Amino acid sequence: YKARKKKKKMLSSEEIHGIASQVIENESTAIKKLLSSLDDTFDEVVRLMFENKGVTVFSGIGKSAIIAQKIAATMNSTGTSSVFMHAADAIHGDLGIIRENDLVVILSKSGETPEIKVLVPLIKLRGNTIIAIVGNRGSYLAQQADYVLDVTVVEEGIPGNLAPTSSTTAQLVM
Q: Nearest-CA neighbor of 171 among 138, 142, 135?
């Protein structure tokens, strides 16, 4: 670890500010792009959530799961009964969290993860409405969902697209 750490070159203040500026710019662009997603589908989803007699169940995998958990916590703070269900746990026994009148909101950047592909048909068999917050309109999740909120991003905030910072920011803002 120490040998590896010694090989890293400290960036100058100018380089640090340049990278930070680019990250903020990329993430700002991702958020501004969401304005085009405020359409009739968005309106319908808001109405569904407002009129929901059950619980709103948020789910996802990886970083999207972390954002889903945060959104569920925020919804509870506003008086909207919500719960987080990890997609991997759901397909291994936790699907019982979902009841008859519950809405299920699934967050995914790709919409193609194996866990999502197993989870979606199980939810559909139960007759629950699926809302996808997804970054790929042509994905399996988007095609199977009842409602799709598009959070596609062109470029992640961190140079080299190493971490999903812009896409998770867009999911949270949506």
A: 135
- Contact predicate 129/48, CB 8 Å: yes
d(CA 83, CA 118): 20
Q: Residue with structure tokens 């809405």?
A: 103
DSSP per position, the chain: -HHHHHHSPPPPHHHHHHHHHHHHHHHHHHHHHGGGG-SHHHHHHHHHHHH-SSPEEEEESTHHHHHHHHHHHHHHHTT--EEE--HHHHTTTGGGG--TT-EEEEEESSS--HHHHHHHHHHHHHT-EEEEEES-TTSHHHHH-SEEEE---SS-SSGGG-S-HHHHHHHHH-
Query: How many percent of the chain have pLDDT more than 70?
Result: 96
Fill in the amino acid letter for 87. Answer: A
Sheet of 147-150: strand order equals 82-84, 56-60, 103-108, 129-134, 147-150
pLDDT in tens, 88-124: 999 999 999 999 999 999 999 999 999 999 999 999 9
Which pTM does this prediction carry?
A: 0.91
